[in-house]
UniProtKB/TrEMBL annotation, chains A, B:
Residues 3-85 form the GST N-terminal domain. Residues 92-217 form the GST C-terminal domain. It comes from the Eukaryota. InterPro entries: Glutathione-S-Trfase_C-like, Glutathione-S-Trfase_C_sf, Glutathione_S-Trfase, Glutathione_S-Trfase_N, GST_C, Thioredoxin-like_sf. It holds the Pfam family GST_N_2. It comes from Hippocampus comes. This is Glutathione S-transferase rho. Belongs to the GST superfamily.
Length: 225, 225
């Protein structure tokens, strides 16, 4: 089954990492794995654009079926290999609802992290403002406080007592924040969650190969009320 | 069943509209509907913040269960009332995968529309740049061309021959673009889709009450190659 699957991915990208974790969790090994380089702009190469007109990674296919959106790939793998590996979608309606809520809330989390991390990349020199940088840091501090609170309410996992698709989807964003210097003392529940999950086999096995040196862009975040 | 459900919503908001369409499609009528005013900042009122710490609409609850993210509410309604009203998630794995892909692609669509529509609201006066406005208009033109192509490939609906959750989620964004002046001649497939779906009972019944006068922010979009 996995041998019919192909994944194009880039190192360190949370959306790519999600799919790699999901494949591990579903015991789908031996798929065709192609690591491409963002630095060399290989995600904008013809071979990617032919499959994914957005020119983004991950790009996944299973036989003739192409799925380019990371969360959609994860749901596809769970739906089609429900009884293989770990079940990722809770059957209890309330847990399932919470899980999907957190999956979709990965959007503002990823976006607010990106607003800080990619600021210089997004805005050319003449358009950059200290006031905007501050506003973005405030927004990401508030967003991370919200996730800190979620973990207090439901932990140890994002949708309760069991590892689920919410963790597959959101963990790479949380890990990304720590890679960019997030302070564990300021966000103790997030740090606890990070430390718990980084030892999980599916996550250890797929850890981004380029994450040796930490960065410090998120080290100092403004106080939130 | 629906009498245990409560929806707080704001007029014209695509995420709120999604949930209202899904409730109609699932024959869930008679729920407690509370229209709040964005202008009066009622989405930041204590009664919303107590349920939804993001201070955003929609906010939905079914008995004690609170779900605040619009797509998660739609999936919850479909999962829990599968055999009631119209089935919104295709059972064919390939159609289902395409459907989820389009659901998650509503994110960049909504974001790029928002970058143009809310530009002045997002950036204070000293931070606004004509170059950024142009870049945003280019991005939304490219994004809409992609959806035009999707409809050419799969139409009449977004995941193929049948109305699905992809349409529930994405139609409000497409309608929003036309409300903001999108040119039907430039995007004929999107216009055809818009005209087909606006006659659908679930959509007619929930049409935003404040959309009499059209706006023209998206009337002139740059050419894309």
């Amino acid at each position: 089954m996995a041998k019919d699957m192909t994944l194009y991915w880039g190192a360190g990208s949370p959306p790519c990492w999600r799919v790699m974790i999901a494949l591990e969790e579903k015991d789908l090994r031996g798929y065709n794995s192609h690591q491409l380089s963002f630095e060399k702009m290989e995600h904008k190469s013809k071979r990617v654009l032919d499959i994914n007109p957005r020119g983004q990674l991950p790009t996944f296919h299973d036989g003739q079926l192409v799925i380019n959106e990371s969360c959609a790939v994860c749901i596809y793998l769970e739906s089609n290999f429900k009884k293989q590996g770990n079940e990722l979608i809770p059957t209890c309606p309330n847990e399932q609802a919470l899980m999907y809520q957190r999956v979709f809330e990965a959007v503002p989390l990823g976006q607010k992290l990106g607003d800080v991390i990619y600021y210089e990349w997004k805005f050319p020199e003449g358009e950059r403002h200290e006031s905007a940088k501050e506003r973005n840091k405030n927004a990401v501090a508030l967003e991370l406080s919200l996730w800190e609170r979620y973990l207090k309410q439901t932990g140890p996992f994002l949708a309760g007592k069991t590892f689920s698709l919410a963790d597959v989807v959101v963990f790479p964003n949380i890990a990304y924040a720590f890679y960019y210097g997030l302070c564990p003392e300021r966000f103790p529940k997030l740090a606890q969650y990070y430390n718990l999950l980084k030892e999980r086999p599916s996550i250890k096995k797929t850890w981004p190969p380029n994450w040796e040196v930490k960065k410090d862009l998120l080290k100092e975040l403004p106080k939130t009320s």
